[in-house]
Structures are given as structure tokens and as C-alpha cells.
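During the second year of the project, the team shifted from modelling isolated chains to modelling whole assemblies. The rationale, set out in the original proposal, was that interfaces cannot be judged from single-chain predictions alone. As a representative example for this report, we include one of the complexes processed in the last quarter. Its constituent sequences, exactly as entered into the pipeline, are reproduced here:
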Amino acid sequence: MVNKITVVGAGNVGATAAQRVAEKELARQVVLVDIAEGIPQGKGLDQWQSAPIELYDSRVIGTNGYDETEGSEIVIVTAGIARKPGMSRDDLMNTNAGIVKSVSESIARSSPNAIVIVVSNPLDVMCHVAKKATGFPRQRVIGMAGVLDTARYRAFLAEALDVSVRDIQAMVLGGHGDTMVPLISYTTVSGIPVTQLMDRAVLDKIVERTRSGGAEIVSLLKTGSAYYAPSAGAVQMAEAIVQDQKRILPCSAWLEGEYGQSGIFLGVPCKLGRGGVERIIEVDLTPAERVALGRSADSVREPMGKLSI
Ligand code: APR
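Output from the structure prediction step:
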């Protein structure tokens, strides 16, 4: 358990993340921050009042400022506007970049030693904005995308194979968007290569569905985007850090030559522990996967040129 975890943005993803953090007792205090007056306070109070039923002692509070967040060990950033039907992640970019920049500056002032987990979209670009605005080293600015994309992929595989989600190991790398790269060569069911258990055509359909996993939820919900799995993903990363678990999870990390890429955030396997990203692991890729990862990196780099902040 750490002393304090702050969640910025008390909307669907943020409030659910705060609830998950509290229920897992990852921090003594959980601080929800939002610009909307009353919303973080009301949700924080409501969550704290569920503590005697759910039996946790994490104290959840809500606020519109950063005084209460001071000295947070971890900050989860979910502030922004959510994707609407027909809206691409890139449409969101400049609005959310302005929001993430101002939030990040406040975090750097109030919690200069925090590890920041970014969830706001478009993810890889928002990570860049957060790193620049906080001035934090790359170990302490991490994007949540790969855990979510991999969870979607694993859920679809478990369903198709009628096996436990626990037994599906997989990695989805690359940018958080249509160009993400599910690594079929590293997808196993309790160590058995998935290609031995499933027709390639079925697998290809699952890969496609994973790629548009976010859009599928948006089109069903009509208003708003996914939040149960995204919040679970962010909290899994926070838990790996708080408990110093040294978990190997696909996260968006700042690359300095790894996978032949520099100067961008991209989804890669990372070791997460108390130091944040403690190691970036470079795995062998098939030629097709390497090309796909390069294409995905291009799709992250391209919109960065259109950033107006
Ligand atoms: N500071 C703090 N909170 C802010 C700020 C800001 N500067 N600007 C906006 N917010 C808040 C909004 O008031 C809102 O409560 O961010 C919250 C966003 O919540 P939702 O609209 O419910 O969006 P949500 O579904 O939670 O998604 C948040 O995560 O997965 C991504 O694409 C998604 O970028 C989006 C983010």
C-alpha cells in the first residue's frame, strides 16, 4: 500500500479506476480530481460510503484542486473528453492535449516524485504531452493501452476457445489505435501456441475485432466510450507499481532506440515495479510484425506533427 493515489478526471474511467484502487486498498488515500464542481466530491463521498460494505480502509475524497493531491506516489490521468460515435482518436487530440498539459503541470508541482499513468486519448500522443509538461523521466510516465488491447484480445480468444481467460498469454504492441500489433507468434494458451488450437481465419477475425475493440463499444454505448476494461487496465499497472510486482505488461513507453524507434511513446513490453518502467523488453519479431510495428509508430508520429500545444 502507498500513501496516496490521485485519479484526475472523475468521469467514467476515472471514477471506476478510483473505486478499483480503493477496493484493492492500493493506497491509504485516493483523491479524485475534476474541474466539474461537486462531481469528484460527490463520487468520492459515495465511494467512501461503500467502504463499510466492501470492507476497505482506503479513504476516497474528491476535489477541484491539487492541494489534496500533494505528494501522491501515483497519478492516473483520465481527464479529457471521451470519443463520440464516428469520432476518431485523432479528432480528440488537440482538445485533450490542452487538458493533459495543464493537468500534468499541476501534477509536477504538487507531486514531483509521482509515477504518472496516462489513460486519456489519443493515448500515445497524450503520454508525450504529459512527459513534456511534467519533465519527468521516462520511467515515470507510462501509458495504459496495451494492457487494455491485450485484455480484449484475450477475452475474445478465451470465448472462441472456451477456455479460462487465465490461461491466455498474449501481447498487443504498437500504438493504441487501428494499427496496433497483436503478436500472434507470442500468443499461447498455457504455453501452447494458439495457432495449434485455432484456424488462422478465426484468429485473423479476432485480431481484427481487437483492433476495433474500442470502436465496437462506442457504437454500442452511443454516448461515451469504454470504461470498465480501461480502468481495470490502469489499476493493474498501478498495482504492479505499488506492490513492486515486476510484472511484464505491454505499456506505452518513451522509446530511445528500442525497436528501432526514438522520440515517441509506443506500446512495448515493460517491466513494472516500484520504479515505474524498470525495463523495456525487446522481443524478436517476425518480419511482418516488425513492418506492422513500424507502420504503427508512423501512425503515432504523424498526428504529433499536428499538435498545436
Ligand atoms: N482537469 C480535470 N478533469 C477534467 C479536465 C481538467 N482540465 N477537463 C476535463 N475533465 C474531466 C471532465 O469533467 C470529465 O469528468 O474529465 C472527465 C472525463 O470523463 P468522461 O467524459 O466520462 O470520459 P471517460 O469515459 O472517463 O474517458 C476519459 O479516457 O479512455 C479515455 O478516450 C477516453 O480520453 C478519454 C478519457
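The chain is about 40% helix and 20% strand. The mean pLDDT is 95.
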